[in-house]
Design brief:
By secondary structure, the chain is an alpha/beta fold. Helices cover about 30% and strands about 25% of the residues. The longest helix has 18 residues. The radius of gyration is 21 Å and the shape is globular.
């Protein structure tokens, strides 16, 4: 039996605009082992969310998946018809979006919105669906769930709305959960509670997780492996401890050096920055897209597209000088 629940192979997703073709996701490959968490990391606009929408085939025109394979339980999702894909969404693969206020329908109660998924996929009666909805709200730690089931989204706090989104995602017991920036809109205290909840539910439901985030603190707490994206491509993939201890791509190194930290005397240290700007996806530079900002750049970096190179059996880097990058990171 294949240990991977999801394998994305050479995925390409493009948006055709008046100004040209935006290569939002280019040659992206990764896999998620059953029961594990892969964090997809990178700054805004790098292609993380488009990758997740591509997996669920929710990319809207003018976007289009133009190449690759998406194997879920050894079935290529790109070859399924629309009805087969609808059955998989919610039941086998579920997604938590980053802003629950815009994802929840303001004119329906939260209970009705959770129950809708149950009625669609499990064909239970309305009464049975309501009972299961209350049980699920209790599992995501919404207090007084039997009463709050009839609340509307505006009556709930941001943290409670996110718990409702988690309940909607997990109520049909999916195998794979895609969490797109699940704590971005929340304050620090609520973030910690939601992350703890997700970790507990992952074990309870035996979930595999694709976590999309730009927060390296969240990655350190939750992920088993990390894939780092830059300008639509994965530039490094490795076990989480290896990434934090010794990154093997200059962009990953730059991300880690820009994380706020305290000195041994308890004082804030001056933040490092990554010089330059992200290139336009309409006009990517030849060769390595990060080369114009890279401290290790040499002439060969701009000659041709650099593939993901094997650093070890468990990690890879899209850098021809990975042996020079990421001496042991200072803490």
């Amino acid at each position: 039996m294949n240990d991977n629940i999801l394998e994305v192979r050479r995925l390409d997703t493009e948006f055709r605009t008046r100004r040209g073709t935006v290569k939002a996701v280019s040659d992206v490959s990764f896999s998620i082992r059953r029961g594990s968490t892969l964090a997809l990391v990178g700054e805004s606009g790098c292609g993380k969310s488009v990758t997740s929408l591509s997996i669920l085939r929710l990319v809207q025109p003018p976007g289009e998946i133009t190449g690759g394979e998406i194997l879920f339980n050894n079935r290529d999702l790109l070859k399924l018809d629309a009805e087969e894909m609808r059955r998989i969404r919610g039941r086998e693969i579920a997604m938590i979006f980053q802003d629950p206020m815009t994802s929840l329908n303001p004119v329906y109660t939260v209970g009705d919105q959770i129950a809708e998924a149950i009625e669609l996929h499990e064909r239970l009666s309305r009464k049975q669906a309501r009972v299961k909805t209350v049980e699920m709200m209790e599992r995501v730690r919404i207090p007084d769930a039997a009463r709050r089931v009839d609340d509307y989204p505006f009556q709930l706090s941001g943290g409670m709305r996110q718990r409702v989104m988690i309940a909607m995602a997990l109520v049909c017991n999916p195998n794979l959960l895609i969490a797109d920036e699940p704590t971005t809109a929340l304050d620090v205290t609520i973030q910690a509670e939601i992350l703890e909840l997700l970790r507990d539910l992952k074990d309870d439901f035996d979930l595999s997780v694709l976590l999309i985030t730009h927060d390296l603190g969240v990655v350190a707490e939750t992920a088993d492996r990390v894939a780092v994206m830059y300008a639509g491509r994965i530039v490094e993939e490795a076990p989480v401890r290896d990434i934090f201890h010794a990154p093997k791509h200059p962009y990953t190194e730059g991300l880690l050096r820009s994380v706020p930290r305290l000195s041994s005397a308890g004082q804030r240290q001056r933040l490092d920055t990554i010089e330059g700007a992200v290139p336009s996806l309409l006009d990517l530079p030849r060769g390595c897209a990060f080369a114009p900002r890279c401290r290790y750049v040499m002439a060969d970096c701009s000659k041709e597209t650099i593939p993901l190179l094997a650093v070890t059996e468990a990690r890879s880097s899209r850098c021809i000088r990975f042996d020079r990058v990421g001496e042991v990171m200072t803490q």
